[in-house]
Amino acid sequence: MLRFLAQRVGSLIGSLLVASLVIFLVIEVVPGDPAAVMLGVNARPDTIAALRAELGLDGSAVSRYLSWVAGMLQGDFGVSYTYRTPVAEMIADRLWVSVPLALYALCLTVAIAIPAGLLAASRRGRMGDYGVIGVTQIGIAVPNFWFAMILILIFAINLRWFSAGGFPGWDEGIGAGLRALTLPAIALALPQAAILTRVMRSALVDVLGEDFMRTARAKGLSQSAAIWRHGLRNGLIPVLTIIGLQFAFLLAGGIIIEQVFALPGLGRLIFQAISQRDLIVVESVVMLLVFAVILTNFLVDLAYAVVDPRLRKHP
Amino acid sequence: MSGGRRASWSFLTGAVLVSLFAIAALVSVIWTPHDVSGMNISARMKAPGGDYLLGTDHFGRDMLSMIMAGAQTSLAVAIIAVGIGMAAGVPLGLAAAANRGWLDELIMRANDLAFAFPALVIAILITAVFGPSAVNAIIAIGIFNIPVFARLTRGAALSLWTREFILAARVAGKGAVRISAEHILPNIANLLIVQGTIQFSLGVLAEAGLSYVGLGAQPPTPSWGRMLADSQTLVGLAPHLALVPGMAIILSVLGLNLLGDGLRDMLDPKLRVVRT
After folding, report:
1. Residue B209 or residue B6, greater confidence
2. Interface test with A, best of B125, B223, B259 (most A CBs within 10 A)
3. Mean pLDDT in chain B?
4. How far away is chain B from the Cα of A228, in angstroms, using its nearest Cα?
5. CATH number of the B3-29+62-268 domain
6. Rounded Cα distance, B91 and B181, in Å
7. Domain ranges of chain B
């Protein structure tokens, strides 16, 4: 297990290094001088020179890359050009919206998908199954930002149950915060729930065909008891993998939903940074999102190895 | 999904929906009911019906004409993005399967890494550097598609390499490149077509999302995603502004998915396609 862990950690670090290099190189190929790009066409040469020095652009690409990585390792993401505040602080503020939103959406996804998948698998080939498949087919086709607009139209504009956007902050109480995140989380969760339902259904259908399920039925368990006691546990392994991957996706996908609801999360930060050409912020937020995906994959791998010991020997 | 009847049902529904959008996109090149960018302030936000079958937007532009022209953008972006993914991903996957060893290792590690960059994140990076445009959206979605096809191709090709007919081809003196092109590729074509349909539908969704947040097609290029973004503050006054482009996206994506499912069942019921 220790060797497996060491191997996985090694590949985690390797992936992060290469990812950071790719992001750095892409930002590096900005046509022309990044300082001039940031300041716009009318900037005076001395202002550009001052910004160049401030950004450390006078050094070589290698030394800039190394100092960027070294800074990040110490939690220093540099200083935003437009806001003159440390990028790490700006990101930390926004994470208080984006991470709870992704977690909320993940909980909803699981809460919808597991019962729906169970229902479809246990009624395989009957009306209930076709109903669930049909709904998931539509769920996969619905763009989440459009669904978000429809939710606003129904629940905020017509019924006035929720506000159409904005975030009061967690200082106003957890209830108020969760309330503001409810419609965004539903919008984010729906397409993911449709995908997870299909995974859950097909995993369970595979398990139901296994010999041990026949044995369970043969020893007198009812269909539902057999699914509950033996099927669910074995069927959940692939489902857990997808749930892990979905969290990373929800965090990145939340960027668009945050725009719909005007939530002050990572999405707003990155789109403002793009329009203001604040490349330091873009670079850091992108690195953070990629880091989240890579780290989640790593944790899923580890969880897999814990659940299925065979994988430790043949990673 | 089981049963031949269901398969043909989903194939037919999918084919009808996809053809409808393809025809709308093609026709819009030479004809639309009204001028796509023609504003008519006196006919602002008209509900569907009468002169304007799908209503008008806040500038009095005909929604049907915009949907038709938007189909052109949407389908073009998705087709080219799938093309990029296949053109780069399939040869990479074939090469990885033919040369187990360092090349395989390198390609697969690069693939793992590419999976860490969702299309949205690639688009953000590209846009931050080069500015937003439909071309950059195509590149972003295309890059995202490469590892999907590389992984699928490698997996399918690996199992073929152990088969007798490949061994026969090797005994006949054919090299890895020729075997990949003449024997492996034709045998995985079905799989690639099915996955291509699915990536196509994901491409339509991604294009809409990118245009919605302003990272995709720029005005005056018509785009479903931007129609939704424009309608956002007006949706309470005129719900059709959001419903019409939304339904266009949903029906075209649904059509592509049904077509993909139908094709899979028709071409080979045992095929398993990875959804990402």
Report:
1. B209
2. B125
3. 84
4. 23
5. 1.10.3720.10
6. 9
7. 3-29+62-268
